[in-house]
């Protein structure tokens, strides 16, 4: 695979705020690439720079091997799906989708065909004559997608494409986006702050924070071996203990934190004894009980159950540790502890050493 | 990317120069020593001195203020009531809303001659009273437009909340709705006042002896011949307008965008 | 209620009186005589009067067009400036808007007079033949009208352009529209409410303008406004003046109704 979009040391300031801080990325042809980060991490600026809507202060942007820094947006083989769609309110669905082709001066016959096919692809047949204001949120979103895809751009940029949709539509659109990408074959670059979205959709993703790229990798790599606590937190690892690395023993090691028993974990990489580390445990890898049973878990931590919630398939517990930290436990309904714990009760959380992840602080 | 094309910036600058150059020339010339022509003969305040020693100027200014004050009070009091009535009166009042703004839409000269005919027909002597009525005819719709714009932006939940908390409709009006309308009312009052001060055309037709306002005075001075005194008076009027803009701007900031109306 | 009464008494009644008077005859010494006649309206067809109506229409149309051309770039700049600049620029446009119309027109008298600024400059440049005749020309009236009503075009346009999200323009650029194409296919159609409102606010008062043709056009360069004034205050032919006024009024109402309801509402608010 070739590199389709290459960013080299790209920086951008908005006044005194650094939106992008020497960002370098390589995105491959045909890839579904996500940029995951909290709002204000600079990810939208990155998209706008690729689209040509903002100019970088420093650095080079290359598309298909050609530096495009000075190219205006209408000359770049790139189309953006705007966060709030930015559909043209005065144009019908058909004219919205045909806009890009018309601006490029395609023959009318070709436009008719291409728009028709695209309407089918995004399942909007029969809505050609409607105006954006007459469409539901999901339909508007599909018009926005079609309007970008119909131009067969080398790269499709998506800015929080699903943020404005409700939960159920979002799930549907996950599959839809994947399907569309396969049909069109363009490279997709998608910006999102939803970790599940990024993990589910992407071939690879980059995690961004405060204008910097923290880690790039496949969803699996990032989920299983986050490079830092920031990445780990952002990917949904909310349970953390800071402690002192106590030394290894075979492949395992111990971490000590005041107020907690020594905790056993896999040694990720050589670490000097007595260095500070963070131990993180995924919420779905914890088991919650009212009475601890010794076997077969490696670690047990107790705390007070603060509240619990039920979302249909899982039960979520929030437990306050003696250290003051608040941990989350996610248990499938089938695996609910018996007897059921009550709020305010002392509960025990247990896990295997292999499910803990050590990160240097 | 929200960069504005260079050509637009340049032509905007040119348009601003076009808007201001004549006014600037006027002000500069008002300080010109020369009594004839536009040739610069040195800085002088003599035209201002001459102007300010003319008692009829003060009389005209005083007349203008009284008329503006009177028509503003009437317009705002009647206008707020009408705006609330129209806004909450439901769709059957729709044609009224159009009718009410008509005085703003037709050329001023039509208002002037129509009023003149009525006043003469029913033999109301032309003077302060007729001018005040004339100014209220366009002041009232101006108030209605501004207050309605504000009303439309009010959250109806506020009045409902007050009702829910036990306020009578009357108390809702005096304690909730009217206070919320205050910025719009002040804005409308300022606008009315300025428009009335500035009005020439309607005043021209319905004024009588002894009710000369400032614009009428300027007009009669222009008619009798161009003297630098007019420049001085005009410059003073420009400065007064600028101050009015400043004050009303501050109030608009609390209220909303200035509405579009017609006053010349 | 009180305002409805006031409206009726001071607006509707005068218009009806005007309509009535326009069918009466002129008295020997300027009064009205109660003899019903359609003569006044027949006189509207007089080539001289008709010519003045056409002139006024042409002036009003030209003024509207030129105000649009001059006003749009400035309105766009204001609407798309950073907030801080937007306030400054808006105030700059508001000041002439609030400055006495008479005074602003008079400023052009100073510029156009035989011993005015323009001729002063021409003389400085060595063109010392006789002074250019600028005052009391069609050109002077036209400049005065455009100058007088330009802010009325700019302000509604600013509001309309400000309402178009920047992203819509960016979307057009992203979809291969050049800058001019973005204006042509996106900004212009979407700012239509501003165009309608601004055109009304310029067209109607310039059609009925009185100060501008009076001061800058003099006695010869008449428009409907000056003609009406002359009939009322100089010739004292009220019935004919009323007929003229009603002609102007119906012309405007005709346009107003022709615009359709939606455009009307946009124009009013």
Record the SSE blueprint.
The complex is a heterotrimer of chains A (361), B (264) and C (269).
Chain A lengths: L2 E12 L2 E12 L3 E5 L6 H9 L6 E6 L2 E2 L10 E4 L11 H11 L4 H14 L15 H13 L5 E5 L7 H18 L2 E6 L2 H7 L2 E6 L2 E6 L1 H6 L4 H6 L4 E11 L2 E5 L6 E4 L9 E6 L5 E3 L9 E12 L3 E7 L5 E7 L13 E6 L4 E5 L1
Helix pairs in contact in A: 2-3, 2-4
Chain B lengths: L5 H24 L16 H7 L2 H34 L5 H12 L2 H14 L6 H26 L2 H9 L4 H30 L2 H6 L7 H11 L3 H27 L10
Chain C lengths: L1 H20 L3 E2 L5 E2 L5 H6 L2 H34 L2 H16 L2 H12 L4 H8 L13 H25 L3 H9 L4 H12 L1 H16 L3 H7 L6 H11 L3 H21 L2 H8 L1
Antiparallel strand pairs in C: 1-2
Helix pairs in contact in C: 3-4, 3-7, 3-10, 4-7, 5-7, 5-11, 7-10, 7-11, 8-9, 10-14, 12-13
Description:
The complex is a heterotrimer of chains A (361), B (264) and C (269). Chain A is built from eight helices and 20 strands. In chain A, helix 2 packs across helix 3. The longest helix of chain A is centred in the middle third of the chain and has 18 residues. Chain A starts with a strand and ends with a strand. With 264 residues, chain B is mainly α. In chain B, helix 3 crosses helix 6 and helix 3 runs antiparallel to helix 8. The two termini of chain B are 38 Å apart. Chain C has 269 residues and is mainly alpha-helical. Chain C contains 14 helices and two strands. Chain C has a two-stranded antiparallel sheet. The chains are: A alpha+beta (361), B mainly alpha (264), C mainly alpha (269).
